[in-house]
Each structure stands twice: as structure tokens, then as C-alpha cells.
Amino acid sequence: MKGPQNARAEAVLLEARQLGRVDLQRQATLLKPTDLSLHAGERIALTGASGSGKSVLLRALTLLDAPSSGEVLWLGEPVTPPLIPHFRSRACYLTQRAALVEGSVLDNLRLPFTLKHNRQYRFDAATAARCLDLAGKPRGFLDKAGIDLSGGEAQLVALVRALLLAPQVLLLDEPTSALDPQSVAAVEALVMNWLGESPNARAFLWITHDPEQARRISTRTLTMHQGALST
Q1: Looking at the whole model, is its pTM more than 0.85?
Q2: Under 8 Å CB-to-CB from 165, ≥6 apart: which residues?
Q3: In this predicted model, which residue has the larger pLDDT, 2 or 26?
Q4: CB 144: neighbour CB atoms within 10 A?
Q5: If DSSP codes are grouped into helix, strand and coil, which group holds residue 25?
Q6: Interatomic CA distance for residues 188 and 52, integer angstroms
Q7: Among residues 194, 158, 202, which one has the least CA distance to residue 176?
């Protein structure tokens, strides 16, 4: 018999059932009907050539692009339109190009907590400072203007902003693509630290083109090829 800890570790957090995407205008299949289960504690690396459908899959999983077929389930329940805002705070998708607003880094980190559907969460300045410290950024970084950030710094801010919501799932679209090796290590440490805080209730799916990174960060590697997902 499996004990409670094993049961939690094997819980399915996010699931896709026959999830597909078709560009009706071009009559092109972007994502072939896909089944995918992300279990608590899993670290999945998603690899594949540019244009193979990796980002399409992540956007479909978070319902940013409406699927042409199939469904997305969160904790075993279909994600219906009224549940999408809460779902996205629990399963955070980080795009390859970070979307920041005008103002300081601190303003950007506070932004999610000003939204109505996140009113049950509170901004924790100490946690924000700890995350930035782990990423090698000084306290003064909080006062830096968002428009003055490099692409890599913006990616880092977007990641910390997501982590402050304490999500259960991270869907990461090449979060280190614009970073130097030292910053790559810092981002990997941030994500691993987040996972380690609650290993029986969190998981991530990480798009990467770097085979070495895939080996470092993952317990399982999946590959996309022409819109099809394979192990």
C-alpha cells in the first residue's frame, strides 16, 4: 500500500487530454492532440527545434490560446472560463520575453497583488529580497527602473514576481535564454529552491535548447517535433 507521502508525490497537478491547436486561417496543425500529466515533484525539460510547437503547448496549457480540441485539468477538474484567473496564479506561465510595466522593479513585483483575483495573497518584501539575493542582486536593484533593465534582468524579475505568488506549477519558456552563465545558475537555483520548499506539491515544465541544462534541471525530458510530443 502506498503511504500518504507517496500519494501526494504522485498527485497529478496539471493535465492535458487530447489538447490540440489548429490555425484555421492557414489550415495548419500547430499542436497535434496531446496527452500530458504533470505530477507533483516532477521536473520536466521540454526540448525540440525552433517552431516545433513547444511554446504553443505552454500557451494552450494555460489557455492563453484557445485549444481547438481537448481540455486542460487542474487538480483533476476541468479549467472552465470562470476559473482561469485563479488557475493562472497557481500554474504560472513565464514567456520568453518578460512583460514589465512602467515603474521600478519593486512596482513590478507588487503588480500581481493589486489584481482582484489575487486579493487573497499578500506581497512579502522579505521573500522578494531573499529571492533577489539568491539571484545575486543587491537590495538597490528593487529601485531600478523597469525600462532600464536588460532582457536577462527583466526575465529574472518576471520569475521572482511569479515565485512570490507561491504557485504550484511553473511553465517556463526558455527563462535563461538571455542570461550569462552566472545568471543562468542563479535562475536555476531560484527554481530549485522554490521546488524544494514544497516538493510534494509543486512541479515545473521548462523549455530549453540546452541539453546540458536539460540534464541539470530535469527528472524527465520530453521532445516536440512538428507539433507532436514524445518521450
Answers
A1: yes
A2: 89, 92, 112, 118, 121
A3: 26
A4: 17
A5: coil
A6: 24
A7: 158
Q: 169 forms bridges with which residues in the sheet?
A: 91, 203
Angle at 82 between CA 166 and CA 65, to 5 degrees: 80
- CA 134, 138, 143, 145 torsion: positive or negative? negative
Backbone angles phi, psi at 137, to 5 degrees: -105, 135
Number of Cβ within 10 Å of residue 223's Cβ equals: 16
> If you search the block for the grid coordinates 542563479, which residue do you land on?
186
Q: How far is residue 139's CA from residue 210's CA, in Å, rounded to a whole number? A: 31
Q: Is the pLDDT score of 22 beyond 90? A: yes
- Quote the cell numbers at residue 144: 531600478
Domains of the chain: 4-102+169-230 (3.40.50.300)
Q: Which of 91-100, 129-138, 163-172, 181-190 has the highest mean pLDDT?
A: 163-172
The pLDDT tens digits for 115-155 are 888 888 899 999 999 999 988 899 899 999 999 998 889 99
Report phi then psi at 106, rounded to 5. Answer: -60, -40
- What is the C-alpha separation between 101 and 85, in angstroms, rounded? 19
